[in-house]
Every structure is written in structure tokens, then in C-alpha cells.
Amino acid sequence: MESTRVSGGGTEYIARPPLVAARPPELAALGHESIVYEPYFISCPHRVHLADDVVIAPHASISLVEEFRGRQHEPTLTIGDGCRIGRNLLIACIERIEIGKRVLISDRVFIGDAYHEFRDPDRAVLDQPMSEPEPVRIGDGAFLGVGAAVLPGVTIGEHAYVGANAVVTADVPARSVAVGNPARIVSHWDATVREWRPGAPGDGPAAGRRRRWGVR
User: Fold this and answer.
1) Residue 152 phi/psi, 5° resolution?
2) Looking at 43-103, which runs of residues are DSSP E strands?
3) In this model, does residue 204 exceed pLDDT 70?
4) Average pLDDT over residues 12-28
5) Are 157 and 177 in contact (CB under 8 A)?
6) Structural domains of the chain sorted by starting position, each given as residue range(s) with its CATH number in brackets
7) Average pLDDT, stretch 117-127?
């Protein structure tokens, strides 16, 4: 079986079976040199916008939903210039997810702007409606570690760093580091003294707006 050989940044990579880079023509926007490696799953591709030089690794599942149990939605997914996205990406979008420029997303990351309701104890979760959607925004230059989950309504600031397996239920300020389940801020960049400081900006125990995800 043949291998794919790819050179970049002075390093040669091989892959078997060979990688197949695609440029899905059905997308709403597909920027210069952007590629999605096969295999991939994209529903409602006419609502997906990829800017220039975006690379999405194999086995991405990008699910945009226009109708669920009789309710209509108008989802939009936007991914900015120069993003690099790892294998097994999982996106669930029924309203809006925005990923900024030069964002680095590791393998097995989940990003969703809604979830299946669960509050009726006599009905299967599968048979319950979706929650009210809350837009998700990921700022320019941010990083999402392996296995991270970004839940509805979250904004991740510019150049923020989300550690591996973090479950992000609240906003992460720009230039902060978030880890854990639920994610908490463990350090932030103090521009006044130009150094990293422990904890969240303002010495708060958590980032920005606090949420009790899934509970009203």
C-alpha cells in the first residue's frame, strides 16, 4: 500500500493509507488553499464558510441542523484564515459558531451551540427537543487542547489556551489558560506588568460570565 509523503516546516510526514485532500465545492465559501482531508461528514455544507488557508484533518464531523422535530433553524459556521484543525473534530451547530483566525484545534475536540434536552424524565433524550441555541465564539489565535469540549454560549478570547480534556462552560478571557472539568482559569497575562499571573483576571476563581450549563 502506498503512503502519502508531505513536507512542511522542514519536516517530512508519511501517512498510510494515503491522505486525500479535498476542496468541497458545496460549501458556502471555500477560501484560497483551504482543504478538508477525507473522509469527512458535513451536513448543510451551504452554511459552512471557510476562509483562506484552513486545514481540517481527516474524520471531521460537522453537523449543521436546519430542522429538528418541526422547528426550523438557520445555522452558520465560520472558520477564519489560517486555522489548523486536528482529527475527529465534532461540531454541532443550530445557530452560530464563529472560529477566528489562526486558531489551533487539536484532535477530538467538540464545539456545540446547543444540546439535547433531558428534563422530561419519562422521555428518551433522543425524543426531546434541542435546547435554545447560544452562539459560540473562539477568538483569533486561540488554542484548544486534545479532547476539549466547548459548550453553548461560550466565548473564548484571543490567544487563550484551553488545556487537554477541558470542558468549557464559561467564557475564557483573552490570553488566559483554562484547564479542568469544568474548566477554570489557572493563569492570565497581565499586560500592565507584562508577565503571566496565577488565577483569572481580577483574581476571580473562574472566567468571565459564570454559567450552570444545562440548568435553568
Assistant:
1) -55, 140
2) 48-50, 55-56, 60-64, 67-68, 71-72, 76-79, 84-85, 90-93, 96-99
3) no
4) 86
5) no
6) 21-203 (2.160.10.10)
7) 94
Tens of pLDDT, residue by residue over 149-200, are: 999 999 999 999 999 999 999 999 999 999 999 999 999 999 999 999 999 9
By three-state DSSP, how is residue 198 classified? Answer: strand
What is the pTM (predicted TM-score) of this model? 0.89
The tally of CA atoms less than 13 A away on the side-chain side of residue 128 is 15
- What is the residue whose three cell numbers read 493509507? 17
- Residue reference for cell 459564570: 210
Told to judge if 116 belongs to the known catalytic residues of this protein, a careful annotator would answer yes
What is the mean predicted confidence (pLDDT) over 84-102? 97
DSSP class of residue 131 equals P
Predicted pLDDT of residue 4: 64
How buried is 76 (Cβ within 10 angstroms: 0-12 exposed, 13-18 middle, 19+ buried)? Answer: middle
* Catalytic residue from among 32, 49, 59, 116: 116
Average confidence (pLDDT) over 54-74: 93
Q: In the sheet where 104-105 sits, what is the strand order? A: 20-22, 35-38, 55-56, 84-85, 104-105, 143-144, 161-162, 176-179, 184-190, 195-198
Contact at 8 Å (CB) between 154 and 168? yes
All three cell numbers of 205, joined, read: 476563581
Between CA 17 and CA 202 the distance in angstroms is 50
